[in-house]
Amino acid sequence: MTFVVVGGGPTGVELAGSIAELARHALTSDFRRIRPETAKIIMIEGGPRILSAFPDALAGYAQRALGRLGVRVMTDMPVESITADGLTAGGRFIPARTVLWGAGVAPTGAARLLGIEPGPGGRVPVGADLRVTGLENVYSLGDVAACMDEDGRPLPGLAQVAQQQGNYLGKALRSELTRGRSSAPFRFHNRGNAAIIGRHAAIFDFGRFRMKGYPAWMLWAIVHVVLLVNFAQRIRVSLQWLWRYLTYRRGARIITTPVVRRPV
Ligand SMILES: Cc1cc2nc3c(=O)[nH]c(=O)nc-3n(C[C@H](O)[C@H](O)[C@H](O)COP(=O)(O)OP(=O)(O)OC[C@H]3O[C@@H](n4cnc5c(N)ncnc54)[C@H](O)[C@@H]3O)c2cc1C
Q: Which Pfam families does the record cross-reference, listed alphabetically (predicted)?
């Protein structure tokens, strides 16, 4: 039983870590004929190292943490093809029935819909006020928008970018409509990048300040609970997480034995 996760970004790292924890802890006593803890979990990364957006030291920690969970990380292996029997990466065939894609998403064809030339990465080019380049009164924000930072690099496709742009644009449009005033250009304030590897293992990069291991994992959990929409959700999720933390149980289960219905 081999699981291959393609892509060594935060999504791939989180996915590989979760599969490893499910296989080695949560599902160990759920099957009669298979032993989930013997599953092979392989992460394939096309670049020279995983988590390229993070500093070397944090990425190295994450790779070691994955190794402790039994995940084999293979770098410099760009994926060439995927079939029902496995995948070919870096000229090598790896047999696997389950291949999970964590190597990025492509933008929708919004630029084409607007009849304009796509910007970097096929996204919609926008100015510092989020107005679509070359169009009047059309704005674009979030993942689909190619918005540059002060150094001329495209902002990453992250929820915090999308949220800050949403807040900015709402206020900017209100200011323009009610007071006829244009706003200062949009500036992204990076609140930190995080990747979670598994239980007690995460990394946080705040620029000058970095965290890893248990404190980073705890901070990740607190941030996610605090950002939930209301108090009831925060309590519900906190209790669910506490239960799963104490019992290693997960909510989802697959029933593989067919149910035999006897006539009454
Ligand atoms: C697996 C994964 C993990 C991620 N983890 C993180 C993370 O930990 N932290 C983080 O900050 N970011 C994370 N992100 C990125 C984050 O989800 C995005 O940056 C964020 O959702 C962007 O918000 P958005 O509103 O621009 O786009 P979306 O959230 O994608 O919303 C776009 C919406 O538009 C709809 N839509 C698309 N095309 C059309 C159309 N033609 N007509 C009508 N509706 C349409 C879509 O169905 C969707 O509902 C992750 C992304 C992925 C894929």
A: Pyr_redox_2
Q: Write the residue with the smallest CA distance to atom 26 of ligand 1.
A: 142
Total domains in the fold of the chain: 2
Q: Whose CA is nearest to atom 35 of ligand 1?
A: 108
Tell whether 264 is covered by a domain. no
Tell me the chain's radius of gyration from C-alpha atoms: 22
- Whole-angstrom CA distances from 87 to 5, 16, 30, 78 are 11, 17, 29, 11
Residue whose CA lies nearest to ligand 1 atom number 52: 11
CATH number at residue 62: 3.50.50.100
CA–CA separation, 166 vs 38, rounded Å?
46
Contact 46, 78 (CB under 8 A): yes
Note the ipTM here: 0.95
Interval between CA 143 and ligand 1 midpoint (Å): 7
